[in-house]
Amino acid sequence: MRSYLLNRAWQSLVTLVLATVVVFLGVRALPGDPALALAGEDRTPEALAAIRERYGLDQPLPLQFWHFVSNAAHGDLGTSVRTGQSVNDMLRTALPVTLELSLLAIAIAVVLGVGAGVVAAVRRGRPAEWVANAFALLGLSVPHFWLGLIAILYLSVATGLFPASGFVPLGEDPVSNLHHVILPALILGTGLSAVIMRQTRSSMLDSLSTDYVRTAEAKGLRPSVVVRRHALRNSLIVVVTIVGLQLGGLISGAVVTEQIFGLPGFGKMTIDAVFQRDYPVIQAVVLVTATAYIVINFAVDLLYSIIDPRVRVTGEAS
Amino acid sequence: MSVDTALPPAASPADPDPTSAPRPEASQGSRVLRRLRRNPLALVSFAVLAVAIVVAVLAPWIAPYAPEQTDFANTLAPPGTAGHVLGTDDLGRDVLSRIILGSRASLEVAALAVFTALVIGVPLGLVAGYFRAADAVISRLTDLLLAFPFLILAVGFAAIRGASLGNAAVAIGIAQIPGVIRVVRSDALRLKGLDFVAAAVVDGASDLWVLRRHILPNATSVVLVQATVAIPAAILGEAVLSFLGLGIQPPSPSLGTMLANAQQFAARAPWAAVLPGVAIMVLALAFNVFGDSLRDALDPKASRR
Fold first, then answer.
1. Which of B39, B136, B207, B276 has the fewest CB within 10 Å, making it most exposed?
2. Would the CB atoms of A252 and B159 count as touching at under 8 Å?
3. For chain A, which residues make up each domain, given as ranges?
4. Is the ipTM of this complex over 0.95?
């Protein structure tokens, strides 16, 4: 157990260091003088010199890297060259929006995906399985941002059931907040649910053919109890992993969804930064995403090794 | 590792080389084809794909109008208008022509992205599965790539190199490398344990020879299935990037930019917002259904489970 955890922690650390190097070199790979890009509109020689000094661009690369890492480690992610706002402040307002959207979407995806996956496995060869499979195939093939556009067109603009865009913080007015977030979360969640459904189905089919399920059936337990207590409980381990692996897809999906529904979250901040050529913000956004991905997947692996002791023995979460 | 031509000579019909891989391709290939032909879903999806690819290749000759051609007398014309079967957009551009050219661009990006992913992913996967020492290094690389979700990668690419069709394709392709490495690696691990590979090694075949002549040909079906999963994902990825302005740039036709443009007048011309999305969905669905059928045909046991 201990050596497995140490090994995973070491691997995560190596990945994190590599990711930091990639982000650092990425900004240095900007065409032309990075100072020009960082300066924005003000391109007088004095301003450029000041920028070079402030960002340490006149120093050797290894020293620059050291400053980059030590600043990031101290929680200083730099300052937007467009608004002069610190990236930390921007994240403080943007991240809660994205976090709320993502958690709601994951909840919807797990309920829909696990439900449909169980139905497809239990009702093998019947119309219900066919419907659940079709739902999953459609979910993998529909462009979800387009689904969002259609939802806005027919559910918001035409009927006024939901607000078409905008956001109200959770602390200000929880009801209005949910009203703004529920439609985007549904769109984002259904996309994720297709993947979860397929994995739950195949993992349930595996569980249903095991000896312990046959034993449970043989001793006369009701089928619903066998499915819930024996087969599903063991299949849920897979769901935990899938949610971890789908995190990248979730982040990408959240960026698009926020853009369509005008939610002022992490995704909108990212896209705005690209179009305003706000390099310090882009650098911070990429670094924060990579770090979040690595840390959350490490947490998922820990969780996994707690739920399923076999992982600790073989040392691989397969 | 020596140059592969220096080691075991290719099997000649007169002197069958006992170490050469069993050649199941011919018989397996015809079996797979037979199973595909019996599956109606496979036939329908294949027909849709065949039509889509022919239309994409011949797009400039098939499309009734040039995709950028404006017609200010006929702006926001609904579908069924004389001369514009699927209507026009805010500049009077023919929606059908733009969908045809846009689908061509989608397939172009998807092909380019998946090609990138396979060219880099397959060799890395083979090496990771075959050499234990390389596995740890390649695993870290996979983890590193996974840490940058495709959209964030595309954001970085757009910031550094500018937004374009090629950069979108490369960003999508890089994001697909880990998936390719994973499936190829596990198949290489499986094949490495089989008798015919062991026989080749005992016979003195070099690692490169074994990888190229024994493991790679037998891993083809896995690569094929992974490609059918990756193509629809790349089509959706291109649509998202172009929609956000990080991919194909207007006025070049792309299904994603069409949707972004239609956002502004969707209430007055819903067809301009609905039809390009339907086109993306049909393309992606056809690939996904065909991919599923192919997987079932290659490995009937896995699906019957």
1. B136
2. no
3. 2-73, 90-307
4. no
Which of B262, B270, B281 is opposite residue A141, by nearest beta carbon?
B281
The pLDDT value given to residue B9: 41
User: Which portions of chain B are predicted below pLDDT 50?
Assistant: 1-21, 304-305
Cis preceding linkage at B79, omega within 30: no
User: Is the CB of A157 less than 8 angstroms away from the CB of B267?
Assistant: yes
Please report residues of B whose CB lies closer than 8 A to that of A140. Answer: 232, 284, 288
Q: What is the pLDDT of residues A223-263, one digit of tens each?
A: 888 887 777 877 777 777 777 778 888 888 999 999 889 89
- A90-307 homologous superfamily: MetI-like (1.10.3720.10)
Q: Supply the angle between the helices A279-307 and B150-161 in degrees, to the nearest 10.
A: 160
Q: What is the DSSP letter of B5?
A: G
- Which residue type occupies A2? R
Cα-based angle B205, B209, B212 (whole degrees, multiple of 5): 150
B292 and A138 Cβ atoms separated by less than 8 Å:
no
pLDDT tens per residue, range A166-197 = 787 777 778 888 888 889 999 999 988 998 99
User: Judged by CB atoms within 8 Å, which residues 126-155 of B form the interface with A?
Assistant: 139-140, 143-144, 146-152, 155
Separation of CA A253 from chain center: 8
Closest Cα of chain B to A141: distance in Å? Answer: 5
Residues of B in contact with A22 (CB under 8 A): 144, 148
What Cα–Cα distance (Å) separates residue B105 from each residue in A42, B56, B165?
38, 8, 8
CB contact under 8 A, A138 and B270: no
* In contact, A297 and A247? CB cutoff 8 Å: yes
Cβ–Cβ of A143/B151 closer than 8 Å?
Answer: no
Q: What percent of chain A has pLDDT over 90?
A: 17
